[in-house]
Amino acid sequence: MSRTMTALRWWGRRDVRVDTIPVPTTIPDGSVLIEIEACGICGTDLEEYRDGPIVVPLTEHPLTGVKAPVTFGHEAVGTIVDSRDPSAPPVGTRVVVEGNRYCGRCFWCRRGEYPLCTMVASLGQMDHGGLADFMIAPGFMCLPINAELPSTEAVLVEPLSVGVRALRRQRELPGSSVVIFGAGTVGLLAGQAARAMGAVDVVMIDANPGKREIALTCGADAFLTPAELGSLPERYEAGGPDLALECAGSTVAARSALDVVRRGGTAILLGVHDASFEVPMLPFLLDEKTITASRSHAWDTDFPQALELLRSGAIVTAPLITSVIPLSRTVEDGFAALARPGGNEIKIAVVPDRLHHPTPTGT
Q: What is the pTM of this model?
């Protein structure tokens, strides 16, 4: 008789279910079976829940062969319990999972630009992920973590690697000034990564003034709301920061990022949304500004660097985990909470029910 497990699966727009399905028994060559300890809910998961399908395949994905219903979750932490990959960490190792599958053959893969692979497939979106009791992942995606790193904080390695990739696009980051638009998980982690990678001044911008305390706790030198942006030029000799990261996922923030950087400055767009904004070409040209984008992360560069930043203690993690919920309550206590306007959740970590130990009332 086959074992069963709990898995959170996307069936359609606003239709995400906690299902009981078989534990995977067939492990492909080059892959491992992971018993999950924790998995974060990402903003892109929420977008799929509200507005999908965006990247969830309705027909078989050309690389993974997976189609909806798809098990969510690409911020996974767990222990390898079975393996068909001799080069992977050994059975019994606690790991974080990078999450991007790629073909290895196309123009971009041959250049090491794996997030741009023509068939890129993220676990938890285009292949089954870690919002479940067990998941299968290619061995190369799995990086060992020590016993001291809590699984509910290790889920932050993946979103931290998104910020690391963006910051690596700025060649002269040491000694620079950085403004971050959007004090969500990626923004708050990117601000800390910027400091650890050499930035000397970090300012967080968010429309929610309730984010001020957590932004300062996470090491920001200042916090401003968009209404306070008029005071920003006074902070810099050149009238603006060297670099601005847009992590808010809005056209207003994207345009503001470009507007606030100094002459010769750079705006990097990370936020995921499908909308346009106008760029006045004359000031853009005369000021020699740069605007670029950054997508996801690579398993061999960004992800290991993010893990090392976390290991080193350079990143404040505990305040970012605002809720820890059981897998069986992911829809009600996870997605519904994140979809609620004006909420103050940063990162919700989901743990299998067997590992969920609620804090007693009154403590």
A: 0.94
**Helix H or strand E segment including 281:** helix 281-286
Asked if 175 and 270 sit in the same domain, the reply is: yes
Tally the domains of the chain.
2
Same domain, 167 and 126: no
Q: How far is residue 154 from each of residues 91, 146, 159, 256, 284, measured CA to CA in Å?
A: 19, 10, 10, 32, 40
**Residue 288 to residue 262: CA distance in whole angstroms:** 9
Q: Closest by alpha carbon to 299, among 138, 146, 188, 148? A: 138
Amino acid in position 114 = Y
Question: What is the C-alpha to C-alpha distance for residues 290 and 261, in angstroms, rounded to an integer?
Answer: 9
Domain extent for 226: 161-293
The pLDDT score that the predictor gives to residue 1 is 56
pLDDT digits (tens, 9 = 90+) for 305-363: 999 999 999 999 999 999 999 999 999 999 999 988 877 899 999 999 999 987 654 44
| Pairing mode of beta strands 94-97, 70-71 | unpaired
Strands 201-205 and 177-181: parallel
In a domain, 360, yes or no: no
The Cα 255–Cα 276 span in angstroms is 10
Q: Is 274 helix (H, G, I), strand (E, B) or coil?
A: coil
> Is the Cβ–Cβ distance between 43 and 93 less than 8 Å?
no
* Tokens matching residue 114: 């794996």
Partners of 246 in the beta sheet?
Answer: 181, 269
Encoding tokens for residue 121? 């497939």
